[in-house]
Amino acid sequence: MKPRILNKVAISAVFLALNSCTEQNRIIPQTRCDTAIAIATQTWEVNYYTSKTSGGLNAQRSQSFQSNTITNLNGERPLNAVSIDDNGIGWAALPPRPTADEVDQQRQTQEQNDPPQLQRSVEYQLRCESGSLKTDDLTYREASRAIRAGQTVRVSYVGDRALKIEAQESKSFSPLKSRNVGKSRDGLGRSRNVMKLEIVD
């Protein structure tokens, strides 16, 4: 009976190993991307509340007011940006702060409110042959540097999210250079120069 038990254990081990190899060797798709995008949005928000201690679902709510958006491309400063943050993201001028009257108009019965707060958010994307892929700030900056340097950016992805980028030098045609290698004569005995084209590395 012992040999049979060992055989079953061995078969199970082989099965698990094969499954593990299959998962590890699964092909992850790649696509080529030509634009890194960062959409910077800033919005004035006001927190309204009936109680900050009750913990009820309807005790607090957030109301959005004036907002604006600016698009950063490939890490370059947008034309309408008035400031650049520590992550290299350009921001537009602040949207108008909500007035006291505007805040009062949105207040419901028995509610109180906190002062308006400016909320900022950035959405990072890569525009690729397969479509737009979501990404993070580090990958955005890495892709931006490669694109500005004229490199080819290839991205591994799953679903709509970028996983890893690979930047490679773009292949370009080498210039041609002509060189005089001597003279020859045509059928009428006239002399002519013979030129040779060479590829310059």
Keywords:
201 residues; alpha+beta; 3 helices
Structure commentary:
- It contains three helices and eleven strands, in the order H-E-E-E-E-H-E-E-E-H-E-E-E-E.
- The protein is of the alpha+beta class.
- The chain has a domain at 30-168.
- The strands form three sheets. Strands 1, 2, 5, 6, 7, 8 and 9 form a seven-stranded antiparallel β-sheet that branches.
- Strand 10 and strand 11 form a beta hairpin.
- The longest helix has 23 residues, at 2-24.
- It starts with a helix and ends with a strand.
- Residues 1-23 have low confidence and may be disordered.
Secondary structural class: alpha+beta
Count the helices. How many? 3
Distance N to C terminus: 73 Å
Strand content: 35-45%
What's the alpha carbon Rg, rounded to whole Å?
32 Å
Give unreliable regions as ranges: 1-23
Mean pLDDT: 81
Helix/strand order, N-terminal first: HEEEEHEEEHEEEE
Share of helix, binned: 10-25%
Sheet of most strands: 7 strands, antiparallel
Count of DSSP strands: 11
The shape, in one word, is elongated
